[in-house]
Amino acid sequence: MQNPAAGATRVILVVAIDTPLRRVFDYRAPAAWAGEVQPGHRVWVPFGKRRVVGVVTECRDRSSVPEGKLRFAFERVEAEPTFDAGFLELLRWSADYYRHPVGEVIAAALPAALRQGAPIAVEETRWRLTVIGKEQGLEKVPARARQMRAAIEALTDVADRSAEDLVAAGISRESLRKLEDRGYVEHFTAETTPPASNEGLGTSRSPALNEAQQTAVDRIRGSLGSFVTWLLHGITGSGKTEVYLNAIATVLERGEQALVLVPEIALTPQSITRFRERFDVPFAIMHSGLSDGERLAAWRDARSGTARIVIGTRSAVFVPLARPGLIVVDEEHDSSFKQQEGFRYSARDLAIVRGQRHGIPVVLGSATPSLESLERAQRQAGSLLSLPHRAADAKPPTLTLVDLRKHGESQGISTPTLLAMRRHLDAGRQVLLFLNRRGYAPVLFCPSCGWAARCQRCDANLTVHRRSALLCHHCGAEQDMITRCPTCSSDVKPVGQGTERIEETLEAIFPKVPLARIDRDSMRRKGELEATLAQVDRNEIRILVGTQMLTKGHHFPNVTLVVVLNADQGLFSTDFRASERLAQTIVQVAGRAGRAEQPGEVLIQTEYPDHPLLSLLLRGGYDAFAAGALTERQQAHWPPYSRLALLRAEASHRAEPLKFLQAALAAAHRHAVKGVQLLGPAPAPMERRAGRHRAQLLLHAPTHAPLQRLLSSWILELESLPEGRKVRWSIDVDPAEL
Ligand code: ADP
Ligand code: ZN
Ligand code: ZN
Tell me, what is one Gene Ontology molecular-function annotation carried by this entry (predicted)? Predict the structure, then answer.
């Protein structure tokens, strides 16, 4: 039937399938629909003994697989391709860049329902009257057939109604079928357009922008329709969100869509309300808490263009858009934009790649930009937009170090801190204390013999929790609390502070002051965080104790004192990014203070008041810190002045990961690419975790190109190393943590 000379019909489908194998698979398309299939279509194919959904990435004339071994694809999932060519290309590029199996990358970009073969379009059964039904229905159906008469009445004066709708109105499917037999009604299938995920309210108006905001908005507006990566660097409360909102207003006027990526924790109703109150348009909201159905609906609205504003966490960077106009990455420095397992992509970096492919601007916003983004802004002259002042006349807070070596400290709280708390509480204000450690105490220790409670599966101490349990924060293992040392039977005691202990201490010191603790343990239930934040808003809570959860996105207008209880945890880490993270955390927490009229005060407790990083931060703020840190990075050849990839391996047997990495190292030397250095292998900073031993090999190169050149050939070889069969290994390009 086919004429190869004409070459009209390409019968070989190259299909990406959700498997860890780094390859695609060839299938023959049945002649009946071979001409109708194109890249981006989902197809049902046989895979081993299973029947799975794959995505066609290419259509070809011939395959290198021998004819006899080629299997036929079963069928197309639906007539419409799921992805257009451009989007498919973005996914393939991402798989290539992160060296991740393309089938898994494509699967990650699909809502679960579509991965399982559901159609994009939702169809439903609808009923309508036939011509006879319209003319004679009510005359012919006897009065006692009440259900049937009700059905005819329900369908009179309307074109048609859905089966579900009729059943909800009390009409049985049986009576509909009886009417159909008599020729009075008929049913048909139709695509539904489910209501958009969220309608905006559009009740709020933009305040008059200040000069810096107006400049930022004008420049973003001027760039619509072309690719620019803007860095919007504005201190907390400087009005960044107002800048996004005003830029988005123009995007909407142009008939385009805006994609707003936000950190995981910030996707609270509070922050979405701000957007919904401004625009009277359909929204698609995408986060990890959605059901499969909700996710598909939001995805569909984004893809069809129904949703004009799409707000989502990390994975929303893979949502297709019909008419993309602008991408915003809010709090671009946030670590949740980097996926830390499986397909290890950076949503921030991919947002930029997407912007470039669509030819639209990308706005990265932060009060504490990542050093990567600051370095890019330095290279791309004119791409930095600064908001140096707080918007609503609020003064920036003053930062003071409290030297823990000079001032007495009791249960983690120093005397100057206590005095300041009294002062602010007496003035009717609220106080926020930040400690990056949940639980009661990080160590359970025996003072007589030095024993400490360790996790049996990790190289880590167990954390004491107030509900009488010892928990491992790394693997989740749980043990009963003990009071006697298992080696010498002396009394053991909890050492150090967690948020629970700070809560206990403060309750004893300020028994009459209402307090709330905000961390992952206290805010487990859905809605609890919102309820507590509302209480803070109403001033029913005066002291807030919490972890990272407190540092992001929330507005606490009546908080005038912020205390960082222990700044030292990030000062002496082996990870070159630790100081950047610490500076960001301190500045973000500090930013919670005094957002309204009252100026704020920030106390930072430390045993190292002379630490150069803390001094830079105190004297010159985040900008001074960042300038210093960038100089250090440049001198040490760390990113953003070099590129990294990390090969990780783990196994339950201690020797295996290192053996595999040694073999990988030898293989890399065979592929030697100039400029790429290999460091290690070495055990991971926490070698044993959840019973598995971990090791890593670091690749370091001046730019990305030589790194990619090595990775592309090297990984294929890793897949065939015999040592690789005894370990689980993964590659992390641009790792966020070492
Ligand atoms: P950021 O996102 O930088 O933290 P926001 O956009 O949330 O800052 O603004 C902080 C506060 O200042 C908000 O309450 C906001 O409504 C207000 N605000 C922002 N811009 C202005 C402005 N031009 N005039 C008055 N108030 C403003
Ligand atoms: Zn002991
Ligand atoms: Zn553990």
Answer: DNA binding
Ligand 2 (ion): residues with CB under 5 Å are 446, 448-449, 451, 485, 487-488, 490
Does the C-beta of 736 come closer than 6 Å to ligand 1?
A: no
User: What distance lies between CA 258 and its chain's CA centroid?
Assistant: 17
485 annotated among ligand-binding-site residues: yes
Ligand 1 neighbour 65 (Cβ under 6 A): no
User: Residue of the nearest CA to atom 5 in ligand 1?
Assistant: 239
| ipTM, interface predicted TM-score of the complex | 0.97
Place of tokens 């220790």: 445
Using a 6 Å cutoff on CB, does residue 241 contact ligand 1? yes
Q: Which amino acid is at 503?
A: E
Q: Strand, coil or helix: what is 284? A: strand
Distance CA 728, CA 691 (A): 13
Closest C-alpha to 510, from 465, 466, 474, 543: 543
Residue 720 makes CB contacts below 8 A (sequence gap 6+) with none
Q: Return the SS3 of 17.
A: strand
C-alpha 597 chain-centroid distance = 33
What's domain 398-439+497-635's architecture? Answer: 3-Layer(aba) Sandwich (3.40)
Q: Do domains 200-387 and 398-439+497-635 have the same CATH topology?
A: yes
| Domain 643-733 bears CATH identifier 3.30.70.600 | yes
Superfamily of domain 12-116: PriA, 3(prime) DNA-binding domain (3.40.1440.60)
Token pair for 601? 């005060």
| 59 annotated as ligand-binding | no
Distance between CA atoms of residues 338 and 72, nearest Å: 38
Cα–ligand 1 centroid distance for 557 (angstroms) = 12
Strand, helix or coil at 605? strand
The Cα-based distances of 313 to 90, 263, 285, 287, 347 in angstroms read 19, 6, 9, 6, 9
Task: Give per-residue pLDDT as tens, 374-433.
Answer: 999 999 989 999 998 877 666 778 889 999 888 877 888 999 999 999 999 999 999 999
Which of helix, strand or coil describes residue 634?
helix
Pair 643, 703: CB distance under 8 Å: yes
Q: Is 253 helix (H, G, I), strand (E, B) or coil?
A: helix
Mean pLDDT by 10 residues, the chain (738 residues): 47 94 92 88 95 95 86 91 94 96 95 91 82 84 85 86 84 88 87 64 86 97 97 91 97 97 74 88 88 88 94 95 97 94 96 97 97 96 90 75 86 93 94 94 95 95 91 93 94 94 95 93 81 90 91 80 87 84 90 73 91 87 93 94 96 95 94 89 94 96 94 92 94 93
Q: How do the domains of the chain map onto residue ranges?
A: 12-116, 123-191, 200-387, 398-439+497-635, 643-733
pLDDT of residue 266: 57
Question: Which CATH number fits the domain 200-387, given the four candidates 3.40.525.10, 3.40.50.300, 3.40.50.2000, 3.90.1150.10?
Answer: 3.40.50.300
CA-based R_g, the chain, Å: 30
